[in-house]
Structures
1.
Amino acid sequence: RSMDALEARLVPGTEAAVTNPFFSPDGESVGFYDDGQLRRISISGGGAVVVGAATNPFGVSWERDNTILFGQPQGIMRVSANGGMPELVIKANEGEQMHGPQLLPDGDSVLFSVTTAGGPTRWDQAQIVVQSLRSGERKVVLRGGSDARYVPSGQLVYAVSDTLLAIA
């Protein structure tokens, strides 16, 4: 069945209390976190496939190169959507929390939020950054905001408190 229907429906095989849903680039599969693992399943149902071990992830994205990026306490991890051992690709510095990684179209740069603040407003105090996987160079794109996503039209969409913003 396709996802173009207007009524909500359960994806068979996801009856447990799953969290952190994310779609494959083609929209035919959905990934999620359940019981210490990232898993993926076809939207038409079937058996869930284990992608890799994780603690409750800090944002997840399934990239066009068939890898999955996700935040963990130690930094940004990457694993093949086909399954495997997650690898640390961007190490968090002391006191940093990283959230919401997205691989940019150049295949090298990762967009994500990083904060050293604590408390309920920590993400409103975050920086939105881009970091090169090859060189490790990190550039601050915006100060104050989180959950940034690059959209193909050339905008960056992000959140501050309960407001959604976009910038070219």
2.
Amino acid sequence: LCVRSIRTCPGTSYCKLGKQDALGIGMELDKLYHAIGLPGKFNMAVSGCHLSCSESWVRDIGLIGLKEGWQVVIGGNVGANPRIAQEVASGLDNAGILKAVEKIVQCYQASAKKGERLGKTIERIGLEPFKAAL
């Protein structure tokens, strides 16, 4: 019940389609959050463009690089009950992304029941507490 390794695509480092530095942000998030204990399993993904090669739409927190900054989506999940993430912010720079992820993780930690994934927490309490935290 912790943050798993951050999944990233090549972003601007190795891909012509990349709009943002997915590897850089992914590595920074991994340093900050990898193996941090949380109420439930927690996956993050960083995609450098809208193609979402790292499957950001089906992770607890997904970051998607756009020309004008980062888009943040939360609550995605795969498995028996798949769930597409919902957008909570857009147009953020790198510093804004780090703050947004911190706020989302704090809100999840305060609101989730033991073993509950972020998507289930959102279904139970709604998306508004997470938007308000940002």
3.
Amino acid sequence: MDFNLWLAFHSNFRWIVLIALLSTLLYTYSKTKSEQNFSKFDKNIIKLNLFIAIIQLILGIVLYTQSGIVEYFYSHYPETVKMREIRFFGMEHVLMMPIALSIFVSGGFKGKRINGIKGYKIWYKRTWWAFILILLSIPWSFWALVSRPLWRSVIH
């Protein structure tokens, strides 16, 4: 397994996750203004969001199990829990992202069960919360202590 290849896929796939989140936010917001029930198209959006979330989660789990930073975090826990960058990847990122992705996906499924405007509002609110958590849990290039590139090359 080439760790850098998996890392590039995971890092670059975040843009697809963010596009899915933004698209869902815009779509569900517009639906909160209508009197419509969930359509087959809505159900397909929910399935697509689930598919995207699962791909990103699998990529993240593979990286987590292979990461030297994570291994170092656990083997030197008392010291590394005080080190921002190592703690971010060893604990914060890996906890917040699955939580955010499950909020994202559960919003659509719960909204579908409730249906109508109330269902769209639930879907919208949960997508919004997931979006915020994900934005806060990405190691952006402008964050000094956990800075990572905005786009990773697969070529090394």
